[in-house]
Design a protein that fits this description.
single chain, about 220 residues, alpha/beta, 7 strands, about 45% helix, binds NADP nicotinamide-adenine-dinucleotide phosphate
Length: about 220
């Protein structure tokens, strides 16, 4: 059995993706900053018959993130699917004319250094398996920058470029890299933007293995 690692595994999308992939037979590594919270989610999943473990790391600390993924591999086995979907911090979303170089450290650490650290850690295992899937989840500012949310707009654009480069470079090795854009908010009960609906979309992307950028809903929704 192989493993999905969910980076930014909270009660919304992270938990829904854990259930979606767990029900399909994946073991689940849950990564967020708070060990108690990922342990509690892992316990819930275990009660539902899913093999799950929690690992604490701040994605803004590349060494800690790599160490968490190394522990996950040691405990659960090779990571076949990596999802990078921590929820961005509110203070990344400042108006463009108030944004200083220092204000961009956090967004770049979060959306660029974190994905690069995670991908570099899991790629040898995916190559060993001969297959893998890397899923990036972003808001609509990855596609249409928003003047009131400069940090995420700038950093998501860089993350998107990294993902597209990986897509183009790794496809020939059976490693599929894709991005899901969620315009607006994740909305419980929404036909396409409920966490479980988004998790089904991500499962479909993993199965279909076609194209880099996918949209959960219309961009102006
Ligand atoms: N929520 C929305 O309305 C919305 C809209 C558009 C796109 N998205 C995308 O959807 C994904 C998030 O889904 P969600 O909102 O339902 O979140 P979620 O899966 O419920 O939780 C995400 C988790 O990310 C963790 N996290 C935040 N900062 C972190 C850090 N520095 N290091 C490690 N973990 C961190 C938090 O846990 P800890 O506090 O324990 O670290 C949080 O519980 C993201 O990719 C986001 O871009 C969300």
């Amino acid at each position: 059995m192989t493993t999905i690692a969910i980076i930014g595994a909270g009660p919304g999308l992270g938990a829904a993706v854990a259930r979606q992939f767990g029900r399909q037979g994946f073991d689940v590594a849950l990564v967020s900053r708070n060990q108690d919270r990922v342990d509690a989610l892992a316990s819930d999943l275990t009660r539902e018959g899913i093999v799950a473990r929690g690992f604490a790391a701040d994605v803004r600390d590349p060494n800690a993130l790599a160490a968490a993924l190394a522990s996950a591999t040691a405990r659960l086995g090779p990571i076949e699917v990596l999802q990078y979907s921590p929820v961005p911090h509110r203070d990344f979303m400042r108006p463009v004319l108030e944004t200083t170089p220092t204000d961009l450290f956090g967004p770049i650490e979060f959306s660029v250094y974190g994905p690069v650290a995670a991908v570099r850690q899991v790629l040898p295992g995916m190559r060993g398996l001969g297959r893998g899937t890397i899923l990036l989840v972003n808001g609509g500012t990855a596609v249409v920058p928003h003047p009131e949310r400069a940090g995420t707009s700038i950093a998501f654009a860089a993350e998107s470029a990294y993902g597209q480069l990986l897509h183009d470079t790794l496809g020939g090795e059976g490693i599929h890299v894709a991005q899901l854009i969620v315009p607006g908010a994740i909305v419980p009960g929404h036909p396409r933007k409920d966490p479980a609906a988004l998790a089904r979309t991500l499962w479909g992307i993993h199965q279909d293995r076609h194209g880099f950028r996918h949209f959960a809903d219309d961009l102006d929704s």
